[in-house]
Write a structure and sequence with these properties.
4 helices; alpha+beta; about 140 residues
Length: about 140
């Protein structure tokens, strides 16, 4: 039996996105948009002296899958390094593309298993992870 694409877990996450406000004066901001469905995620970040995410702000205009993914990203991004964020982004991309068997080592991403055969949904799922990794890279350049 196939699991439903939009299940209770996905909908709960979509309704509970953390950090749903832009930062007042972020070190970096990035907006990512899905060309397939028009979903859009904007992420602001500040890094601490060690290069870890100290603060994050988000504006998410996406389908439930994009919202749920941004919710999982936001819930676990604070305290992460640029390298950890890029690793998560790359692992998520590879998993969705079928290039790795297991979900990425980021809490909760296994809930997107039902979306694996729906490649048109993948860009929206990736948006938050792409935006936070790029914002952290830009913020790291500002910090130097």
């Amino acid at each position: 039996m196939n699991a439903p694409l939009y299940n209770t877990q996905i909908l709960r996450l979509a309704a509970s996105i953390p950090f749903q406000a832009r930062l007042a004066d972020p070190m970096a901001s990035v907006e990512k948009r899905s060309p397939v469905c028009g979903s859009r995620v904007t992420v602001d970040v500040d890094l601490d002296a060690d290069g870890r995410v100290a603060a994050i702000g988000m504006v998410v205009h996406a389908c439930a899958l994009g919202q749920a993914s941004a919710s999982l990203m936001g819930a676990h991004a604070v305290g992460r390094t640029l390298e950890e964020l890029e690793t998560a982004r790359d692992a998520l991309t590879a998993w969705l593309a079928g290039e790795r068997g297991a979900p990425p080592e980021w809490p909760g991403l296994e809930i997107f298993t039902p979306a694996l055969p729906h490649s048109a949904r993948h860009p929206s799922i990736r948006l938050g992870f792409e935006a936070v990794a790029e914002a952290a890279r830009l913020a790291a350049k500002v910090r130097v």
